[in-house]
Amino acid sequence: MNDSDAVLAANLQFYQAFTTRNIEAMEALWARRAPVACVHPGWPPLADRAAVMESWRNILSNPESPRIACYDERVFLYGETALVVCEEELDGGTLIASNWFVREDGAWRLAHHQAGQLVARRPTGPRRPAPGRMN
Questions:
Q1: Which of 26, 39, 41, 125 is most buried, judging by how many CB atoms fall within 10 Å of its CB?
Q2: Per-residue model confidence as pLDDT tens digits over 2-29
Q3: In whole angstroms, what is the distance from residue 19 CA to residue 28 CA?
Q4: In the chain, where are the structural domains located?
Q5: pTM of the predicted model as reported, rounded to 2 decimal places
Q6: Which CATH number is associated with domain 3-117?
Q7: In terms of Cα–Cα distance, which of 88, 98, 82 is closest to 121?
């Protein structure tokens, strides 16, 4: 598996953990040594691992949390870091997201997630679901 495929697999693990509300999988995916940050839509930024993990525990344990699907992933590799830009489809609309990964102990770990409302979409071809996407 090349780096681009490995980053896409890690990104898919993030959305699978979100969709299945798997707190342990979410915890395992986030970086342990690299600084982490997260900006949930409408929230102030969270800038340390403890706060980020607490936010995910609260989101994933809430039965009202939205179901989410990831589309149109694009990977940008920068050596030992990588960025995935994608769209998140929720019941209430579409968000644009960026997920920043770092390589730790040979695995791609999430260091930053940010999502916000997508107001205008560029005219493009049909949307591509993420490989192995869960609904």
A1: 26
A2: 999 999 999 999 999 999 999 999 999 9
A3: 15
A4: 3-117
A5: 0.85
A6: 3.10.450.50
A7: 88
